[in-house]
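Chapter summary example.
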Amino acid sequence: MPKTYWRNIFLLISITLILIFTACRKKVLAAELVITNATIWTGNKEQPMATAMAISGDTLIEIGSDIDMEAFIGPNTQLMDMEGAFITPGFIDSHVHLMMGGNALLSVELRDADTPEEFIKRITEYAAALKPGAWVLEGNWDHTLWGGALPKKEWIDEFTKQNPVALYRLDGHMILANSLALELAGIDKNTPEIVGGEIVRHTDGTPTGILKDNAMNVVFEKITPMTLVQKENALGEAMDYLLSNGVTSVHDVDSLGTYAVAKKIKKEGKLAIRIYAINPLNHWNKRYEGSLQSDFYLKTGGLKGFVDGSLGSHTAAFRTPYTDKPTDSGFFINSEEKLYEWIKTADKENLQVLVHAIGDRAIHSILDIFEKVSEEEGIKDRRFRIEHVQHIEPKDIPRLSHLNIIASMQPYHAIDDGRWAEELIGPERVKTTYAFKDLLDAKTVLTFGSDWPVAPATPLEGIYAAVTRRTLDDKNPEGWVPVQKITAEEALLAYTKNGAFASFEEDLKGTLEPGKLADFVVLDKNILNVMPNQIKNIRVLQTFVGGKKVFETTSD
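The structure predicted for these 556 residues follows.
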């Protein structure tokens, strides 16, 4: 037979097979939801931008152009025209205290109390509504707002006679306790000093009510444990708040029992945010049952410890003394010997270790310990993390990348602490304070979070802080330590892709690409092309977790 005959037969068969394949493809891959007419930043360097995506179940099955999605539209597909709105992968907050944050939303709010009178007034009004014996907790006050004088128990004793008080300074490393709380804890003028902490005293030796770091634990041991109902309420408040800010996943470094409550409400189908639950390092052998669940909502396997305290409480550990207090260099909360023992043991169990280190001496010490454990235990993908990395010495900056250590940082702290940090540590040390740019230039994996409730869990404000470094008092319009500014895209990566990497979940989320979870946020403006000082004014319009809308802003 002529060649043209066989060519035509081959062509006919090919066309038939293509039609069959296309029909099957439409049938098999018809999406439940198709997003079109959007400006999508994917976080995937192979395909950085798109306009549309298709979702089936909780998974993104295609991303590309509006035309590309036509093959995925079936009779039951929901279509959403985003009218040009900007979409990013869901924000991952790599450092929150989830239960504490929920409690803070339900307790007295002191963060913006800017005079002692306002501070006292809010506590008085809140305590008046409580039953006798109920504790007054959280608060998150900031004494720098009224000039720097630390509060005293005498300010509030008269108004809290029936209610013990333990109110955090916003950094979480200092509390104000009233006389009743001190009495319950057995703290008086004869109480000896506590290793890794401080009892601030009047000149006659009596406590002022201010307790720092390990000294706080003596009071905490007397606090009435939360009931299951209280924990569920706190977690519910926390989830609503986080989702309204576009946060779809958190790394929870809380120690108030979040995991058990999250597991319960997950069974009930009420868990709306993805949680990486992290245990205290000093309880390394207390293992949560299970690991990553099949629905990817609840994961365990991390341990978080402390080297030192905080800058604002003068408990961050430095090589040289504080500029404003030449007799004080801060202190270690835990000894290097204990930290090494805990970290090495945990590493043998293949648990991820995260350690809080803020002062330059603390950062240098934990780098040495991580390096020693890595050398002794051999090469593996351990992803050690330093939480905060706030005041690092220049010579230690390259070590994080060299040792494959993740820098887990909180950019909002930079524009908060930047109002007063130089007074405490001087002009030279602030040059590498919150050194985002230097760390990125050294090829460090940088992941961002909030430290909520120490700071608000608002990634858009965090991105604004990293990009502008304009302090909250607006006294640094060009940025505080401006050489450490980074780009909006670098900050977005730190809140998305790198956050997933920091919890060993980069194959599941963090970018928008086929096969990954459909967690994303819809914003009213494009972060990548607005003026940097406008980033904090961008609004979250919608938040999706697993392809389901879990938050939508109300109309103007």
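To summarize the output: The two ends are 74 Å apart (CA to CA).
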